[in-house]
Amino acid sequence: MTLGEIKQINIRSYLGQMNVQPIKNYGYYGMYHCPFRNDQNASFKVDYSKNLWHDFGTNEGGSIIDLVMKMENCSFHEAVNRLERKYANVQTSSNADSSFSFQRDNLSIVIQNILPITHSKLVEWTKERKIDLNLANRYCREIHYRNKDKNYFSIGFKNDKSGYELSSPPNFKSCISPKEITTFRNNDSNICLTFEGFWDFLSYLIIQKIEKTKHNVAVLNSVANVQKAMDFLKSHKEIYTYLDNDESGKKATELIKSANSVVHNRSIKYAEYKDLNDYLCGKKQVLEKMKKRGVKL
Hints:
With 297 residues, the protein is an alpha+beta fold. Helices cover 31% and strands 26% of the residues. Strands 6-7-8-9-10-11 form a 6-stranded antiparallel β-sheet. A 5-stranded antiparallel β-sheet has the order 1-2-3-4-5, with helices on one face.
């Protein structure tokens, strides 16, 4: 990316990904609480049309590069490198609009907004999954996006390359590329908990009655990503797997076992259930039983 392209990366969307939302919107600009200092008066302005920011409290301002330098306490060159790494797959536009454009399978997906989970359908979807809304908002976001000239919204779980796993009722699953695993590193732990999807990870936290585990975590976001997780997994002395009780989950568990010395397969604890979230919801596996009775699904 050129320096000009990096400066076009949208400040509003960058702040949204950092969970910083405007207090007031006035069409072409928004007022925020300053994200890098204590600010009770919402004196931080983002000009959407010019893609510039100004902090009236300190009389500082500039481009997204200047903002990253302030928020992430880094040099100019480091800020440029971080933005380039993070948004290498983003198509910037000359008018710096409020959306990101991602290319996936030759389809253009435009993220229009990133919000806390507030839409009634997604709130209800979270409740159906038996996940506390505050916990869900700690790890997920409500993603509004456009695909093939249609608008959609889903719960999104961010991965290590700033893509998103998408989930919405009744059983919609997709992703905004790049597809990647999600990792959490906590206190240099020698133990890693491994989950197939983010609903299982959240279910584990609910079952344990915690908001954050003291161990490291790898969420595969698909068993197809198991090889991508291997280097991270190998850096731990012990691994606890919470994968699905289906053929692909079992194969992924065996693959992890073959490459690591101490692996504890926790899926046997919920053997009558497809996955950990079904266990939390009390949904036993009935597919095979129904098939045996000749019931067509």
